[in-house]
Write a structure and sequence with these properties.
The protein is mostly helical. The protein is 67% helix and 2% strand. The chain contains 17 helices and 2 strands. It has a two-stranded antiparallel ribbon. A hairpin with a 2-residue loop joins strand 1 (404-408) and strand 2. It is globular. It starts with a helix and ends in a 7-residue tail after the last strand.
């Protein structure tokens, strides 16, 4: 079945939009949690740290980024259907590299300022720091040299950087992914029934990556991200695979919960105990359990989302646009507000509640009353230039991936497109 014909058979999928918004929302709360966990390094830390919180964050730790990359792969599949390769790359430069450069130079520096301040390596105002920030050889950054440039790094925007890189890799692979042999394999998989084959098809590459790449390295994170991006691209609008995902969602949820319980037990009984080591067989089992946890959560979320979230709403349309600016802003708000709140000794209940409130309000107010209303700021945060509601209505299907029904000479054609990633 060709991309064009298969795309017209599927109804609008609001669930993918909803899952994208929820995944980025979850990422914001996860980064708030990083301010409080006891054993995981982060830019700044609260005085109120919790080891128990790590067990809760392990619930989402293994799949929070894979599902984002998978959704981005889905989006690329649909965007490529209406754009040439050159046009697509041009759009990616504008939507990804421009916000990335702006964030590195303007949004992210406060994170370094407060990190250095908390570490006792900085005694100056932010304005003095920011002037020094553009001197790549300034001595105050001697111990902060890791980055895309000395002391200039992408921090939480690494997802955007890798998404651009992965897009290039994916385009190079398209002749293979679209080959007759590969498509026949996907069609064969989509016709199978039962959860074992579907899960196994995802597990094998993940396990191979875990065995060949150090799990603590950046290359491991990149390899996983790109793999799930490819999964999303291959998943596309294949009705057989989607049917399996929906049919087996409960089985995947059970596997996800059981593997989470095992991971929490291992974390507390093995990984937090310096004198306990696993045997080589135990290491292999951990690789498998982690892979099952990642893949089963992703499949379960996609399945339940397809059943319960596939409905339109004006709130979803608004959040689908807002989620990119929220993502760009949120970590700097957390770091700045978290550090300042930690100086007030408000206690382990009031402080995190205030941090959550300030982070959410900061994202909402900056997006609603500044970013989306100032035309020159919109592309810097990944939005279209236009602020006209009329123009938005007319162009949303083409630029933001909204679905619509358009009349053709042959009747009504269902346009099935996803939001432009991320």
């Amino acid at each position: 079945m060709s991309d064009q014909s298969s795309a017209t058979l599927l109804p609008r999928r609001h669930d993918i939009d909803a899952l994208r918004v929820m995944a980025f929302g979850l990422l914001i709360f996860y980064h708030i949690g990083m301010f409080y966990v006891a054993n995981w390094d982060w830019h700044v830390k609260s005085q109120y740290q919790s080891q128990f919180l790590e067990n809760i964050m392990l619930l989402v730790n293994h799949w929070r980024l894979p599902i984002l990359f998978l959704i981005s792969g889905l989006a690329i599949r649909f965007v490529l259907r209406k754009l040439s390769m050159i046009g697509f790359l041009g759009l990616r430069h504008m939507r990804l590299l421009l916000p990335l450069a702006f964030a590195v130079l303007v949004i992210i520096p406060p994170q370094l300022y407060y990190e250095m301040t908390q570490n006792g390596d900085l005694q100056m105002s932010y304005w003095q720091f920011y002037q020094a920030f553009f001197d790549l050889n300034h001595p105050i950054f001697e111990n902060y040299q890791s980055g895309i440039l000395p002391h200039m790094d992408v921090n939480h925007m690494w997802y955007i950087r890798e998404l651009w890189t992965f897009t290039v890799y994916l385009l190079i692979m398209l002749p293979v992914l679209h080959s007759r042999a590969f498509q026949s394999l996907i069609d064969w998989l989509s016709d199978r029934r039962g959860p074992v084959l579907l899960l196994s098809a995802m597990l094998v590459p993940i396990c191979l990556i875990s065995m060949m790449v150090d799990s603590d390295s950046e290359n491991y994170r990149k390899a996983l991200g790109f793999t799930f991006l490819v999964y999303g691209y291959l998943l596309g609008w294949n009705p057989g695979v989607w049917r399996q995902i929906v049919d087996h969602r409960r089985t995947m949820l059970v596997l996800a919960l059981l593997s989470y319980i095992v991971i929490v037990a291992l974390y507390n009984l093995v990984w937090l105990q310096p004198d306990v080591e696993l045997s080589p067989t135990g290491d292999w089992l951990v690789v498998l359990i982690r892979a099952i946890n990642r893949c089963s959560w992703v499949l379960a979320i996609l399945g339940f989302g397809a059943v319960y979230l596939n409905r339109p709403s004006t709130q979803l349309s608004y959040l689908n646009e807002a989620v990119y600016p929220y993502y760009i802003l949120h970590q700097s708000i957390i770091v700045v507000a978290g550090y300042e709140l930690s100086q007030l000794a408000l206690g382990p209940v009031v402080e995190p509640l205030l941090l959550i409130l300030i982070t959410i309000l900061g994202c909402v107010l900056l997006h609603e009353y500044v970013i989306r209303r100032v035309r020159i700021l919109r592309p810097l945060f990944g939005l279209k230039w236009s602020t006209s509601s009329t123009m938005k209505t007319k162009t949303e299907a083409a630029d933001n991936g909204k679905y619509s029904a358009v009349k053709t000479g042959r009747g009504v054609e269902s346009r099935h497109e996803l939001p432009e990633p991320p």
